[in-house]
Specification:
alpha/beta; Rossmann fold; six-stranded mixed β-sheet; 3 helices; globular
């Protein structure tokens, strides 16, 4: 019993953090257009000092790859004891800029006036977030579909700050 209690005590506490990063004013896009008062919504789950994994899904994904209510978009892979183990790693996700979640996007009915957001724009915003969170090294970036395109851009920006990159069903650019 004593050894079992010690093993349980050795598991770092899983923290569930949600936040919004205010992007530089204005946030200038690769197209030359800009976003005013832009924000990037994020969630990070895992022990505070654990290696960081950035998880980027397709265009319908959001910041919650794993959720306390079980409604994360990648629950089959993220969670306690799973491939992306939130007891061993911190898992960071974002809401896409230009999407319909908590990050800056078009207002209802205003999609025609909202500027196009490139994968490079998403990667630059994510790099600003990583820097603001004080992340010196990223253990892994996993990108699927659109998220894989962003992951490639982020990998180029991170350089040797990134240890591993996994791409799923992603080309180097949109067709």
């Amino acid at each position: 019993p004593h050894a079992q209690a010690a093993a349980i005590a050795a598991v770092p506490a899983v923290q569930w953090l949600d936040g919004e990063l205010a992007l530089p004013q204005p946030f200038v896009l690769e197209s030359g257009a800009s976003l005013n008062e832009a924000k990037l919504a994020w969630q990070c789950v895992g022990p505070a000092d654990a290696p960081l994994i950035v998880v980027l899904g397709g265009i319908s994904a959001h910041r919650r790859a794993v959720a306390q209510d079980g409604r994360g978009w990648w629950e089959s892979q993220c969670g306690a004891g799973k491939t992306l183990d939130i007891e061993r790693y911190r898992v960071l996700g974002i809401d896409w800029l230009g999407g319909c979640d908590a990050s800056t996007g078009p207002k209802a009915g205003g999609a025609a006036e909202f500027p196009a957001i490139s994968t490079g724009d998403q990667a630059r915003a994510l790099l600003l977030l990583l820097n603001r969170l004080g992340v010196r090294r990223v253990h892994l970036v996993v990108g699927a579909s659109y998220g894989g395109n962003v992951a490639q851009q982020l990998a180029a920006l991170l350089g040797d700050r990134l240890r591993h990159l996994v791409l799923l069903s992603a080309a180097h650019k949109a067709a």
